[in-house]
Amino acid sequence: MQPPRKRARRYDPARTRAAVLAQFAQVREAVRTLTPEQLARPTRLGDWTVRDLAAHLTLAVSAVPRSLELPEPAAGTPVLALVEWPLATADLAAGIADDTKRLALDHPDLEAMYARTAERFDEVLPGADGERLLPTRVGAMRLADFLVTRTVELVVHTDDLNEATGLDIPYDRQALAACTRLLADALAQKAPGGSVEVRVPPFAVVQCVPGPRHTRGTPPNVVETDPLTWIRLATGRTEWTRALDGAEVDASGERADLAALLPLMG
């Protein structure tokens, strides 16, 4: 018997908006310091350079004001639940890559692009209703939910920038928490059940995977890791076996093997 589905996690739109702005500011400050040689470096994202990656982050954040400026989806339009968003992004990579390359080519002045993005975000967002529906690449979403997806974009790609440049761009705590929780909830959505407990302290604990459900005491199947390792696993930046071998993940119990369920998004 499967455990009852939990009520969807809710996020405070004001706190999420602040987290998006804070993380974007951290990235913007770091991008200012990059030399032409650093901007030309490769990244772990196919043929993207650091410049392409930096441009993409403005594309991800500016998606919010762009969507708000479009007509609201018609009444009755199916709405994508936040927890379904990570699993709905698989087919978007090619289009996003094309848009990113075009943006990086057409707008060589990264600082001007970051300034314009931050200004538009701050102009449009205050006072916007979190329940307003937005047209997005994956379908209609609530503004409050779409803002949470921007924390995923920012945190994941901040990690990509750090890996490519050797910088140590910090993570806003609220942005890191929202990203971690959404990806943990997406795992529970993909593999509903109660036989495995996945712990990502201090931000998330979820139960997943069909099978016997524990009701008290220490669960027989437990996976525990830190937020950045979890995010890298969930987005395909690292592999399950590599994380296990590197002692970045602690997995105990015969069902505590998540290799077949990861990554959740690319």
Describe the protein's architecture and organization:
The protein is an alpha+beta fold and 266 residues long. The chain has 2 domains: 13-176, dinb family like domain (Four Helix Bundle (Hemerythrin (Met), subunit A)); 177-261, Nonspecific Lipid-transfer Protein, Chain A, CATH 3.30.1050. The protein is 48% helix and 10% strand. Helix 1 (13-32) packs antiparallel against helix 3 (50-68). The longest helix has 23 residues, at 143-165.
The CATH topology of the largest domain comes to Four Helix Bundle (Hemerythrin (Met), subunit A)
Question: What is the N-to-C order of secondary-structure elements (H for helix, E for strand)?
Answer: HHHHHEEHHEEEHHE
**Span between N and C termini?**
32 Å
CATH-defined superfamily of the largest domain: dinb family like domain
Query: What is the makeup of the main sheet?
Result: 4 strands, mixed
The CATH class name of the largest domain reads Mainly Alpha
Overall strand count: 6
Strand content: 5-15%
How many domains? The number is: 2
Secondary-structure-derived class: alpha+beta
* Unreliable spans: 1-5
List the strand order in the largest sheet.
4-3-5-6
Mean pLDDT: 92
Shape: globular
**What's the CATH architecture of the largest domain?**
Up-down Bundle
- With helices defined by DSSP (H or I, 4 residues minimum), what is the helix count? 9
Q: Classify the helix fraction into a percent range.
A: 40-55%
Q: What is the rounded Rg?
A: 19 Å
